[in-house]
Fold these 4 entries.
Entry 1:
Amino acid sequence: MNQNELEIQNEELRKISKTLEISESRYHNLYDLAPVGYFTIDIDGRILEMNLTGAKLFGIERSVLINQQFTSYILKDDQDIYYLHNKNLFNTCLPATYEVRIVKKNGESFWSILQCIIANDMVMGKVCRIVMSNIAAQRQLDDDKFARDESYRIFRENAEEELRTLNCALEKRAIELELTNQELEAFSYSVSHDLRNPLNAITTNIEVLTLELGDSIGTDVKTALDYILQSAHRMARVISDLMTLSGISSLNITSERVNLSDIVNALLSELQTGNPRSSISLSITAGLTAEGDPGLLRQLIINLVRNAWKFTALNEDTHIEFGRTKKGDLDCFYIKDNGIGFDMKDKEKLFKPFKRLHSSADYKGSGIGLAIVKRIVDKHNGVIWGESEIGNGATFFFTINK
């Protein structure tokens, strides 16, 4: 081989050497600057080599870590996990992946995932290659999600327990209410039976006594007898209205289309015939109907119309109106009059039994009429309320099966 051939071979060797240096430099850059830690561990658990990222994860210089026990940087509570997997790894040579907490130089710890394989190194022999990733952020997200899920689970369990408690209370209340209704019905029957018969006897005897005494009866005695008779009739009306009020709740209602306008017209015609008024104007919208129980809806209209008739009795001019209108989102019927009205501060008393807003001496009645109206509207899943101004009449709005 001549001198030229040797120079050519040397040049090729230099090029190969340079290429190897570049390749090795690239390898070390990729190795050291990888986003995960690389460790080589011998069978005794000593650190033989690692990349810069691995050293940074521990917070310790790479040179200090060489030949140190890998377990020295695993949280004590997690070391058994490492020993178990490491032993199994060298015995079976099967890859393993598990999570442990790593303790840094400053004492802080973080969750990491270790991906381990067995390799036969030409220099170091049988070793364990470990890829370490910091999963603290992911574990925090998992812990937060678990906490949220646990909080939701506890909240749901508490809500379900409260709901069960509430349902038990409602069932108990329903039973108590049923018993109360039964007692009320029994009481109403008792009132009807035990009070009506004596009242009928009083009424009958007063009427017989008045006929027998005839013209011989004195003025004072006649006034007293008339007062007793009127009181007995008033008590009979109260008993009748109480029976009606108590019976509505337990009544099985039927449902059909009812012409409310016809009922209003017929009732006002009857009232005007029985007690004519010299000046009266009526405004009744024709053809207004509602779906409900015919008997109850008739009673509803009768009570409201009689109420309007009663409280316009002292007017020189009577005006009563029946129609339909919109109040907010509600499609309402209404009955309006130009009577004495009432103070709106007393509106809560309107539909309570015996809560009179006006003197019973001036305006006769049982004091239960509007309570019956409210019960009927409730029975038809509706609402009712009154609006008024003292001296300027009143308007009652109501809905049926809203």
Entry 2:
Amino acid sequence: MSQHRVCQISGNTFVISDEEEKYCTVHDIPLPTISPEERLRSVTAFDNAINLYHGECAFTKEKILTSIPPERHHVYSAEIFASDKWDALTFGRAYDFSRPFFEQFAELLKLVPLPSRLVIVSTLENSNYVNGVTAAKNCYLLFNGTNCEDCLFCRVLNQCKNVLDSFSTQNSELCYGCINVNQGYQLFWAENCSNCNDSYFLFNCQNLKHCYGCENLKGIRNVLLRNIKKNLKPRILVVMKLGNKNI
């Protein structure tokens, strides 16, 4: 029988399934006292994915951009961190078996400099305000991307060009406001779509062309406002209201 428990952080009720309880028992793990949402929040709080700060390289004293708040930790610029100008082994220390591992790890983490940004500088061209990126050209505020060009205000892109305000998009070009899109071209405000071109306001569609306001459709073209359900209608209304204000 599944257990219902109250999260010690949020106060919300969460469920411990029979499978989870069995796994914890077999591996001698205490049953969770925190909800899955709060556990995920705790894990991801360690990583700052989309914020950049003005800081100083602790090695060269030069002004740099860093994803780590400079008042919290010593950081090296991405160039210095990847170079042979410093030796990380100088921060090494003997392991004390009488003390908890994570306690010692936390102490070591506070001493060793961290890279200001997770980038390969040699693969970037005119793309200073990015993080978690390789092979980018003319990109701005792009986070977690690979092989992108002329992309702005995006996160998790791969093989994209001229994509703006989008998330989790790949192999796409000339797109705006897209989420979880693959192989889109001139696609605007689309979500969960693949192989769609020259279309606006799509949700969960495949192989559409010259369409506007479609949901859960495949292999059609030149269609206007077809099969609109609860996922798509609110987005169209919001964008229409914003457009009216700007006229």
Entry 3:
Amino acid sequence: MSRNSAVWEFFEVSAVDKSKAKCKLCNSLLSRGGKGTSSYNTSNLIKHLDKAHSEQWATVKLSRAERTQPLTSASSVQPGITAAFDALTPWIFDDERSRRLHRVIGEMIAIDNESFNVVHRTGLCGVTIKLSNYYLSNNALKGFAIISVFFLSEIGVIE
């Protein structure tokens, strides 16, 4: 029987009772779940590793993820010419992508109890550039008045 789970680096099936697995780190004997071989699972073993050996378990999970990560995404498809040009076009102020960033900026202002003037500060401008060159290059954040009106209308304070 093939055991692909990283869990088996820490466990071995009990020679006495096949429904149990023995932890190689602390010798605990744990149930493999289920009533028969077809229903055995690793849930209890994973819970044990999470609680009793979290550092070792995290290291193995990370190294295994790095080893098994594909070089390219299976779903990667070359974009068509229209999509390629759209990706290079700066967003207009009312573009859905711009609106999502307007909303996030507005929420940050509200949550942090900031003045709407924060949109002119170098730090926030730098963050928005990193988020999307297409947002700031075309919108230049349009000033706090427009952002504030947009956000206040989005959350229903003004119409």
Entry 4:
Amino acid sequence: MTRFKDVLIVGAGSFGSSTVKRLYELGIRVTVVDKNKRRLEEIKDWAVDVLVVDVINKEALEEITRRNFDAAIIAVGSVFSTILLLTVYLRDLGIPFIVGRAANKLQGEILKRIGCNKVIMPEEIVGKDLAESLVLGEAKELELDEKHSIIEFLAVPGWWGKKVGELSFTDKGVVVCAVWRKPKEDNKERQLITSIDKDFTVKEGDSLILLGKNKVLYRLAKS
């Protein structure tokens, strides 16, 4: 499940804006910095804070990063030297997870070597997808409509050994559709269990297929 609760976005262009809006919907606290005040005004309702900052000013970034962000997303324009510089700054300032932009695979390899944990190419991934990947991690999602999805979650330790009824999924409006269970023998395929009632016990390694409202499912992902 996600470890990201407070995220810094550097750059408020189209990519940064779409990312901050989706992170807001997913319940993540976002701070956005950009030197363009007009851009920040347009997205201030989706962020806990927006700051007019020259993003390549290391001293200014150092002051901001004292807020102990879990991750930073470099969403500035396509000037690769700026992205490189910001990656080094954020790494040196102790940001534990850095997302950088690359125009091609070579740039991506360079960013990874100097400290980016995740590299994205805007032509391959949009801000919405990046936001969801930060929250859902490895969970698999099938969107049914704008408000509902089916998501496969790997059971977290807090669920192990508990009955479905004890986990209060029904109270949250979430339906356990099925469970994938790993067999004891490593060479065998997972077993799909579809008869799930309140007395069904969740085990370590189980993957639960849950149906519910997106906001509720994303809160579960963050737990």
